[in-house]
Amino acid sequence: MRLTTGEKAAYGLGAVGKDMVYMLSASYILYYYQDLLGVAGTVMGAIMMAARVFDAFNDPIMGVVVAKTKTRWGKFRPWLFTGTILNAVILYIVFSAPPTLTGNGLVAYAAVFYILWGVTYTMMDIPFWSMIPAFTRGGREREGLTSMARSCAGVGSALITVITMIVVPKLGGMVLPDVEESVAYFTAQLDTIDSSGMTDTEIYEFKNQLTALSNQLELSGFSKFALVIAILFVIFTLIMCFTIKEKSSVDMDSPGVGQMFKALITNDQAMAVVITIVLVNTSLYVTSNLLIYFFKYDMGGSDWNSTYVLFNTFGGAMQILSMMIFYPLARRFMSVTRVCYMSFGFAICGYAVLLGMMMAGIKSLFVLFIPGFFVFVAFGLLTVLTTVFLANTVDYGELKNNRRDESVIFSMQTFVVKLASGIAVFITGIALDVFNVNSDTTEAAAAASQVASTNLMGLRLTMTVLPIAGMLIAVIVFFKKFILTEDKMEEINSELAQRHGME
Fold this sequence. Notes:
mainly alpha; 82% helix; 503 residues; single chain
């Protein structure tokens, strides 16, 4: 029996909530701890990389746990519910660091709760995506559900990308109105301080006061914003859990951890997709993690926040359109593999144009929309494609290894996306420290004049050259290793149907 429209909508709503939480953590945890609280970027990068190493063992084990689960509520829903509740609580704690914590205490706080956040996110993310091959028969049905879910996940990610730096200061101002008034006063004086007769030392202190007040406002705002997102996350997941009924789930002979790793290694197509996902997502996250610093310190100006929000709004819209409109449209004219190669081409060209514009010193926001269009559209398409390809490797693995391991295969998706995030954050943290990009001694609205041009150039190269290299390697891996074309999948599904018919 096919999924009903209501079940599809509920599943999509769950994807929105899930990726709102993920994007808030992936995009802003470094900014929160490094730029606002003063933890060294390299230290935060090391913490997040350590968390990903831990996830290398936690994610596959969670896949095994899901495979072994048998309850009257089904295989997936108990973990979706439990993981969501715990992850929502931890998310709020992560973005609510006690103001009295400093130094090693703050580092320990960030490390412990970020690792716990990853563990609890895994608890719900693996069963969420594992439902796709369990609820679909392959082919267009699976591709349609995957595309819809990824589009909804993209909506969740885009919402966080667009609204975070709009809502956070406003929420902070609601909690700390006196601080908000002080920030507004200091900001209004920025254009006149150079001609006010103040000494350099007085101007320096003036700017530092504004930085401290702005950081205080954002810290309070992030805590309240995380609480709002956590509540929405729980509500959306509950709607999904109560709406979707597990019609059928393949009765899997749950493997041990050793067997599971063996199954993954022997599934060469799953490994090819996994490597591609790591490279693609690392490229994206390096850029997205540095984007706020680019607008704050390179673009600069008193309105850096508004231009950052506007660019993210454009990018989020392009990603959503690429998943909901451009992808279905492209599929009418070309195969999934051709769409994939087209997406790689878009991303590489977009980054190359962006690099050229940065080298030429072009800082017009609207001109930046040109390379932004190609990059955002490419990653929107690749987000859908990699999930479709990964779902297809479940059928391939069943044919090759006589095992249908949805949770095992999809545990790798959770792991590799978080691994890519960890690698990207580590690279970002090192870049921020090496190029001395922070708000410790600069005013947030006019920092561009305080950061050396050579350091800004390093920031630009990290944002563009590394992603180009990552995308080129991804193209080579995909071209040489991936064989699951549409014709090949038809053959596999036909053989599986014959096999099941004989059982």
